[in-house]
Amino acid sequence: MSIIGEFRNFAMRGNVVDMAVGVIIGAAFGKIVTSLVNDILMPPIGVLMGGIDFSDIAFTLKAAAAGTGAVKINVGVFINTILDFIIVAFTIFMLIKQMNRFMIKKEAEPEAPLVKECPRCISAISVKATRCPHCTSEL
Questions:
Q1: SS3 letters for the chain?
Q2: In this predicted model, what pLDDT tens digit does every residue of 84-116 receive, in sequence order?
Q3: Average pLDDT per consecutive 10 residues, the chain (139 residues; last block may be shorter)
Q4: Neighbours of 83 (CB within 10 A)
Q5: In angstroms, what CA-CA distances link 35 with 28, 29, 111, 133?
Q6: Does residue 83 contact residue 39 with C-beta atoms inside 8 Å?
Q7: Does pTM top 0.90 for this prediction?
Q8: How far is it, in rounded angstroms, from Cα 79 to Cα 31?
Q9: 115 closest CA partner among 134, 106, 128
């Protein structure tokens, strides 16, 4: 089989396609959560904290010079990213929790007993036995 044929077989397996769909949906969901954090959650939090815009919080290590930008540690962007992660992780947790709740659970079937009691001597004997090995009575 040629390399192209092997690659096609690999790419068309169900789990690879499912994973690709999951990655694409995850990326789109990540964009939605980023917009939620940056555009909806952070402005009111910034207002409550005295008009702070978290995306502007940064420590300047080196000021801008001729032809180069300033070197900054963007703490506010990092805070936004942490909130993105927490929201995505919590949403996935709740989704998996609900999926597990709705999954049909198979109840274990009880196993057939391997031993039974002899009606005469009350000894434990194999289910397949036709005569008790202790009292020799027929079963």
A1: CCHHHHHHHHHCCHHHHHHHHHHHHHHHHHHHHHHHHHHHHHHHHHHHCCCCCHHHCCEEEECCECCECCEEECHHHHHHHHHHHHHHHHHHHHHHHHHHHHCCCCCCCCCCCCEEECCCCCCEEECCCCECCCCCCEC
A2: 888 888 888 888 888 888 877 767 777 888 888
A3: 81 76 86 85 82 81 86 88 85 84 75 85 86 83
A4: 19
A5: 11, 10, 55, 78
A6: no
A7: no
A8: 16
A9: 128
Around Cβ 14, how many Cβ atoms within 10 Å?
7
Lookup: tokens for 17: 């396609």
Pairing status of strand 115-117 against strand 59-62: unpaired
Domains of the chain as residue ranges with CATH? 3-102 (1.10.1200.120), 110-139 (no CATH)
Long-range residue pairs from 40-44, CB within 8 A, at least 24 positions apart, any chain: 41/83, 42/80, 42/83
For residue 114 the two structure tokens come to 């391997």
